[in-house]
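Both lines are given unchanged directly below:

***
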Amino acid sequence: MSTPPDRKADSSASPAVPPPDHSETQPPAKKLPSLTTGSDPAPTKAAGPLPVSPSLWDQLTEPPAQGDAAVRQPRRWLSSGAWRAAAGVVGLLVLAAVGVGGVRLLFLPGPAPTARPPKEPAPLTTTGLPPKTVAPFDAAQATQFQKGWADYLCVPVVREVDLGGKVKVKMTLIPPGTFQMGSPEGEAGHTGAEGPQHSVEITRPFYLGVYPVTKGQFTAFVRDDDYQTEAEKAGDKATWRKPGVLGWAADYAQTDDDPVVEVSWNDAAKFCEWLGKKVKGKCELPTEGQWEYACRAGMRTAYFFGGDPKTLDDYAWYGEIPGHTHPAGGKKPNPWGLFDMGGNVWQWCKDYQGYYSSGDVKDPIRMDKASSDDRVFPLDARVFRGGSWCANAENCRAAYRRWDLPGSRYDYLGFRVCFHLD
């Protein structure tokens, strides 16, 4: 291989130099050239004109032919390992200067990558769902089910809705699952309307009010929506503002923390509609299936705490005549953190009253009025559940059902709210 014409060495000016012996120790490394000057430095001057490498990357790979003028083989300024290290340092500097997104723009065509959207609650139709409940299960498991579904859905177990004026509605997450609805014939206090006992699956999680709706919360609704209850429109003496007709203790005045009473099914539905606008979602009265499932919280006994009514005093206000409502949350809650699911006030449900189906069902709700030949129930009677301050212990059982016309209002009848996640 001969020297390029524009780089021939003057053989008359210098004797031939033999090729370097690579078996010997390499000479000491020379001082690195500056990489910021924009030009390659000249190699160290030898004893005679030597070929100059046009670039730091040039290297002669073949020894000079014997007949040609001797040519000194240029050496790299840095070894290959050093070049790799230097390239890595430069790469890190580029990353620090322009960021990862900028580096992508250098090497990848097309527009800059957009930021990922925030994590959304997982859709309920995907695989990998947390396990659904199957009754019976205990209080510790009830809490684990709640937390598992809350984590999966990226929602809190307990949610609060601010109504203004330091008034809030607190709701707790109820996970989906399967339970036995109704009561067996041998249960003390069993009625025909509670049977046949059958399997029910609640397929989707939902939020349920931790307490019955209070007088303070209902006041916020009336003021904001300029609402008049049916009792007020009818000119009744007893209204939600000042209840008390039947066995009400004449000297008792409700507090804002007492459950609201003297409200009809229609009044309760209007409150739920108003609250739904506040939370920008679907809010309504719970179905009978949702109510009983949430009340039982995994238990298959007459009460959510067991089958013995002797301990009912720890969980419910009941059997008071004369008597009155009590501030919500004054007794022990059930395993899902719901207060007053037995006693204090009866609670309206969404369904029309009617007989149960004998088969297994999913998300049951009766939205058809009773048939004209059914003399047991009024045609448009709505269900309420839970017992009250003036009810007996058997009326506070999880399976017990009562019903009345949607315009009815009593000083022992209130409601709680249900918020849907979809």
In short: The two ends are 80 Å apart (CA to CA). The first strand starts at residue 133 and ends at 134. Residues 1-78, 100-110, 118-122 have pLDDT under 50 and may be disordered. The longest helix spans residues 80-107.
